[in-house]
Amino acid sequence: PLVLGIESSCDETGIGIVRGTTLLSNTIASSMDQHARYGGVVPEVAARAHLEEMIPSIEAAVAEAGIRLADLDAIAVTNGPGLAGALMVGVGAAKALAVALGKPIYAVNHLVGHVGADLLHVPAADAAHPDQSAPAGPALAGSEPLEYPTIALLVSGGHTSLLLVRDLVSDVELLGETIDDAAGEAFDKVARVLGLPYPGGPQIDRVAVDGNPKAIRFPRGLSLPKDMAKHRYDFSFSGLKTAVARWVEARQDAGEEVPIADVAASFREAVVDVLLTKAVAACHDHDVPRLLLGGGVIANARLREVAKQRTDAAGIALRIPPLSLCTDNGAMIAALGAQLIMAGHAPSSLEFGADSTLPVSEIQAS
Ligand code: ATP
Ligand code: MG
Ligand code: FE
After folding, report:
1. d(CA 328, CA 324)
2. In what order do the strands lie in the sheet with 105-109?
3. Are strands 2-7 and 12-19 parallel, antiparallel or unpaired?
4. Helix, coil or strand: residue 153
5. Rounded CA gap, 152 and 3, in Å?
6. In 10 A of CB 228, how many CB atoms?
7. Which residues of the sequence carry a binding annotation for Fe cation (predicted)?
8. CB 303, CB 297: distance < 8 Å
9. Could you give the percent of the chain with pLDDT greater than 90?
10. 10 Å Cβ neighbour count for 138?
């Protein structure tokens, strides 16, 4: 089926068009620059940007895919979780499009969409005329079908979640998630402490190259034996962020220079260590030899490196979709919509609304 997907849960206005598992276009407009002066995503600013970008983005995605709106079989849209006002713009646009075109609509879960990104592949013919939105990087994970069950680790500015995916369209279980800050949020906050600009993730990655990851032993949240009983698959990054801030302040108060590269490398190491320790534990505990990574923090060089090392050592197959499909995008939403259609699921009724706290087990709105 030919599906147009709309994503607007955070600061990306993403419109993607897929035919089954084939990616036809993936237009992404981010309002990230507008949030830079605040050091984090401002919900009202994000919602307003979605309003401005929505129609031009739909037009661009349709033109790039070389289709007509009338050819679509369905519209898919993220209905949660995410920022309420931001989600509402996408939901409103999707409903308007579905009603105007007389097409069915599938309202889907953003986090499950991140897993769906893994299924997509680019048609070979596209290599002849490469365009900016074509996924960069190594061969797509989606060239081999996704096998079930799989463990998925999703890490972004708004989420840090471990999922057990038994079936993308019918059985996704939340094993654990952050109890405070998301990993990307921690990168952004620590970057601020170090005087680095927003978004902090790429900046920390850059300066950490010259640092010693063992210079400072920062805490690994929720990994003490007493925490592991109740929070085996949960994450906590707020204590780590505070530990870094205290460490830096102590140096500044003593009039000493702050070794930014060492702090960045040691902080990054703590985040990566705890993320992968818990992800690999989840694979072991559930006897699942497959791990899928998703979300914007997957851009982190050290995370990719350690993920490769630890999964190789544990005999776990590692899948990382190209970065343009890891950060928020509409193509992954369209891909999930197409999977629902192919599995024979009925469309959502137009009654659904945006749900900022939508649980991951609710894959599609009824
Ligand atoms: P959502 O949580 O809804 O998926 P988001 O917009 O917060 O949305 P993304 O756009 O997927 O998330 O990712 C942005 C986050 O990823 C930011 O917090 C940014 O600092 C972080 N990030 C980007 N590159 C890196 C990197 N190289 N290392 C670590 N973090 C990174
Ligand atoms: Mg973003
Ligand atoms: Fe996301």
Report:
1. 8
2. 22-30, 12-19, 2-7, 74-80, 105-109
3. antiparallel
4. strand
5. 24
6. 14
7. 110, 114, 328
8. yes
9. 90
10. 8
Number of Cβ atoms within 10 Å of the Cβ of 366? 11
What is the tens place of the pLDDT at every residue in 172-204?
Answer: 999 999 999 999 999 999 999 999 999 999 999
Alpha helices by DSSP H, the chain: 32-35, 43-65, 84-101, 110-116, 183-193, 200-208, 225-230, 238-253, 260-285, 301-314, 323-326, 330-342
Q: What's the 156 CA to ligand 1 centre distance in angstroms? A: 4
Which has the minimum average pLDDT: 111-125, 240-254, 264-278? 111-125
pLDDT in tens, 11-41: 999 999 999 999 999 999 999 999 988 988 9
| Ligand 1 atom closest to the CA of 114, numbered from 1 | 4
Q: Return the structure tokens found at 341.
A: 């259609």
Provide the 3-class DSSP secondary structure of residue 366: coil
User: pLDDT of 265-320, one tens digit each?
Assistant: 999 999 999 999 999 999 999 999 999 999 999 999 999 999 999 999 999 999 99
Ligand 1 pocket check for 181: Cβ under 6 Å: no
Using the mean position of ligand 1's atoms as its centre, give its distance from the Cα of residue 296 in Å: 4
Is the C-beta atom of 80 inside 6 A of ligand 1?
Answer: no
176 is in an annotated binding site: no
Model confidence band, residue 143 (pLDDT cutoffs 50, 70, 90): low
pLDDT at 132: 39
Closest to 227 in 3D by CA, of 269, 190, 185, 281: 281
Q: Is 8 in the pocket of ligand 1 (CB under 6 A)?
A: no
Sign of the torsion angle spanned by Cα atoms 241, 39, 326, 136: negative
